Amino acid sequence: MIEVEHLSKTYGTHRAITxxxxxxxxxxxxxxxxPNGAGKTTTMRILTGYLPATEGTARIAGWEVHxxxxxxxxxxxxxxxxxxxxxxxxxxxxxxxxxxxxxxNGGDRPTRVAAALSSCGLQEKRDVxxxxxxxxxxxxxxxxxxxVHDPPVIILDEPTVGLDPRQIxxxxxxxxxxxxxxxxxxxxxxxPEVSMTCxxxxxxxxxxxxxxxxxxxxxxxxxxxxxxxLEVAGDVLLAQQTLEQVAGVxxxxxxxxxGLAADRCKLHVTTAVGTDPGRELAVALVAANLGLYExxxxxxxxxxxxxxxxxxETAINATLExxxxxxxxxx
Length: 331
Ligand SMILES: Nc1ncnc2c1ncn2[C@@H]1O[C@H](COP(=O)(O)OP(=O)(O)OP(=O)(O)O)[C@@H](O)[C@H]1O
What we know:
single chain, alpha/beta, Alpha-Beta Plaits, four-stranded antiparallel β-sheet, binds adenosine-5'-triphosphate, ABC_transporter-like_ATP-bd, ATP hydrolysis activity
């Protein structure tokens, strides 16, 4: 439904996005996650036909966005960071107005407006002036204006920014309910937002997509599979050798033994993707006559991945190389 290939955008001499490539299939909710200034808004403005790309192409439902910007706008509902609302109009009056300018024909308008009011939980506010609404309800009106012409694609730029925690939950649920057949891209710099609402997440950093996958897969794909922290009694070198021989162990680190009893040591074991040899680690230690006093398992979370990708230059470069080599292999 959405195909983005090698998009770049330069403002003057400043490169805002570089070689952004991704696809979104019909019915998917893709989260566009990145810190402030990463290039989310720029990408969304190109996709919606409001901004030309410097290089690359973007297609929505088969239409190249820049060459067919009017046709593309009919396929898209767009909620910019600041919703375009007329405060002196009532909610219903405003939605009728938007339906008209988006080309919904007169006969269909009452049905479309009623559907948008209902989807966004706005029926009771239909006669209220927009300026009298809370920020959360204003945001719902912003989403209602994006969907009033029943577009197959919805693009939401930071839809929960500035809302209180209750409003955030309501807007997230609303977005999930809009899914189904519709294809949705939402941008955010808030991690839980993508885990809770999206099927897939694209992490964007300094204008580049540095990872794209399901929230769960990202946790395991980019770092090793599982990690264990172990407190062992006995000779530390024997413990190290014993653990290193267990199948699946990829990396072993001896941690500081500060605060531990004299014969104790702490080790951190990282295992290969797709392996989880917890039982074998315990059995091997006991078989070597070592004492096992603590064993804690942890999985890399989306937060670990996001921090790793957006704070460590080396990790980003490694990921970019990995992406380049997988593209080479695919070519
Ligand atoms: N009109 C513009 N002229 C010059 N530079 C711009 C313009 N718009 C954005 N930029 C720069 O391009 C980069 C990407 O900005 P963009 O707004 O796309 O990021 P973002 O991820 O949406 O961030 P935010 O969440 O802060 O809006 C930033 O460095 C920004 O300063």
